[in-house]
Every structure is written in C-alpha cells, then in structure tokens.
Design goal:
With 296 residues, this protein is of the alpha/beta class. It has eleven helices and 14 strands. The termini are far apart.
C-alpha cells in the first residue's frame, strides 16, 4: 500500500459514513469531485467496486463493507494517535458525537456546555437527542447518555448525575377542581399527560413502595414525546405529569406545581455516559467524561 491509497481509504470511509460525496468533501475540506476521483482511483487500483452509486444515494457494496469493517479499527488508531499528540500538549481535539435523551441534554449538558467547549476549544461536540437505546458502535457515536436501567452489560458506564426521583405533579389550578390522588390506582380518575416513545409505545407510569412495584396505564387529553412538554402542560392545568425531579425543582419550590404520591416514588440511579470498551480511549472522550462525571 502506498501513501496515496492511505488517503484514498480515509476518503472512502468518510463517504461511507455520510452516504454522500458532498458531505464527505465538506468534512475533509476538499471538493466533491476530488472525493469521487479518490474513490474511483482506489477502486481501479484494487479492481473492485467499493461503492454502489445512484442519483440519490451512495452505499458500500459487499466488498466495500468487508474492507471498511477491517479498515475502521486501523483508521481509528491513526485518529487516536494524532489526537493523543495534541492531547499531550493539553489540547484534546476532534469531533465528539454523543447521543442523549432530551432531558439529559437540557438539564445535565446544556448548563455546562460553554465551560466545556471554552476549556477544550479544539473539540467539536455533536449531540443527537434520541430517547431509545442507541447502538453507538453501529451508529458511529463515541458515547451515549442514558439512565442506568437502560444500559447494556457490555458497556462501560460513568455516572454523570445524582440519583433521580420521579415526580407526579399538577398545577394549583388543577387541584382546585380535582382531589389529590392518595394511591397510584386513583390515577384512573385523573387527567394525565401521556408520553409516547420513539418506538410508538405509550409509557405506563411506574411506581414502587416497600419493595412492591406497580404499573398504571393512565389516560388523558394530551400525548407528548418529551418531558419538557409534559411539564408545560402540567403548568397550564392540562393534568398530572410524570417528570424527573431535576426537571421541576424550581417549579415545585415556587409552588407552581404541586407534588403528589411522593411515597410511591423512591430514588433510583441517575444518568450515565456509556461507551464501548476499547484498547485506547479518544482524548476528546476522556476529557468529556472527566468534565461531566458526577462527584458527590
């Protein structure tokens, strides 16, 4: 292999990751025509088609997939080696891709993003808001953030939040017209704000007391896809919302929301950043974890 082929392989990997010559060119700061020429030259030298091209899409052929699967670890090692060189000078660098549910982005990351990116100006941070568990290796993320109960056993996890408690809450105006529920079973008589997950399922509210678990299928006039809308609905008197305490601490303290069924909502482990076990961690990811990890 010559040096030209090494650069062509890097171009091929970028095209395959983005499924686009234009997007790969933008990442590599070269013209799309140069991207196309590099891939075509590599295919000619190897006498094999590596990308299937149509007018609307680009995707690896079977031969291309096999090459990229074997190529990925080597390219990653090269990238880490280059990043380590910068990190040795106190400058972790590179693009860092994180998948996180919206509550984690809003409440755990956003308040400190300015400090993190000012501390590490050579890191470009990309955050994708997704509620479902994401295969970070397959989807090309460096790490993900999820609640402890959602983590897979083969992932390394570092805690980035204190323990979390569920809050069932409604506005004072709502409770002027409706009695406070004393038991989760009472919720069948209340207007509750429902949450639909990305897989289409409606979340059934979970409770626990003295080791006893209870799941309640609630009903109500509003269905949302993220907890901030649940909070806003509750504040506006729509009904009861199922929220995390870190989302509504101020609203509860100011009396704009009233909490009920607190004895059925014990604390549980909070949010974790998770990532696959590798021989070497990227300096940018190490900096991210060290910055955001929870210390009691």
């Amino acid at each position: 292999m010559n040096r030209t082929q090494l650069s062509q392989l890097a171009v091929l990997a970028a095209v395959a990751a983005h499924r686009s010559f234009r997007a790969a060119g933008k990442e590599l700061s070269i013209a799309p025509s140069a991207v196309s020429h590099a891939v075509s030259s590599l295919e000619e030298s190897l006498c094999v088609r590596l990308l299937a091209r149509t007018t609307r899409s680009v995707s690896p052929t079977e031969e291309g997939k096999l090459l990229l699967e074997r190529l990925a670890p080597a390219l990653e090692e090269i990238e880490i080696a280059l990043e380590d060189t910068l990190a040795a000078r106190g400058r972790p660098a590179g693009t860092l891709r994180i998948t996180a549910p919206r509550f984690a982005s809003d409440l755990l990351l956003a308040p400190r993003l300015g400090d993190f990116l000012n501390t590490y100006p050579d890191i470009a941070l990309e955050i994708a808001n997704e509620d479902g568990f994401t295969d970070i290796v397959r989807e090309g993320f460096d790490a993900g953030i999820r609640l402890e109960e959602s983590l897979e056993a083969d992932m390394i996890a570092v805690k980035i939040s204190p323990d979390i408690r569920t809050v069932i809450a409604g506005s004072p105006a709502y409770f002027e017209k409706n009695p406070k529920p004393l038991h989760p079973r009472d919720l069948v008589h209340h207007r509750c704000i429902k949450r639909r997950f990305t897989n289409g399922a409606i979340y059934r509210w979970e409770f626990e007391k003295d080791g006893r678990e209870l799941i309640v299928a609630i009903d109500g006039p509003l269905i949302v896809t993220e907890d901030r809308l649940s909070m806003l609905g509750a504040l506006n008197g729509v009904g009861l919302a199922y929220l995390f305490n870190i989302r509504v601490e101020q609203e509860l303290a100011e009396g704009r929301l009233i909490r009920v069924l607190e004895d059925w909502c014990p604390p549980y482990p909070g949010a974790y950043v998770y990532y696959p076990s590798r021989r070497q961690m990227r300096p940018a990811l190490r900096a991210f974890i060290d910055f955001f990890k929870y210390t009691s």
